[in-house]
Amino acid sequence: MARNNVILLLVIVVISAMSCDSNRVFDTFKSVPNQWHKDSIVSFNITPPDSTNAYNLFVNLRNTNAYQFNNLFLIVEMQFPHGKTIKDTLEYRMADPTGKLLGTGFTDVKENKLWYKEGVVFNETGNYTVNIQHAMRENGKVNGVEELTGVTDVGFRVEHIASTN
Question: Where does the record locate the signal sequence feature (predicted)?
């Protein structure tokens, strides 16, 4: 009986901690089945809350110890409501020099909050779409990594810019 109480308390603490995230405007994850295929695009539809404030944008990633690389290359595309598109190829460090995976988490699943854009103003009304796909390559090989293992979830986050007062 005491074990059930401890589990219940732990669940309440986790939910409380998650609900205290006052900077969050949009924060969603989508699961990647088993392996992330190089042609698989993870998409997020975002309706911005206003067109006057600036926001910070992040790519969130959950990965396990099965992730074999020290870095990660992503292609992130933002489609604006009136047809404009911005496409970036981004590189993130995923492990330290010893090979230990970076990120937060107590188990073998690590969560990484990766900067995408800073101070973005959503000045067009309507829905924005963010598309994310991996662009990993092995050293010395021309073709990309067909199936990227170790990535379990891909997310996108929009945050209010935290005040420095």
Answer: 1-19
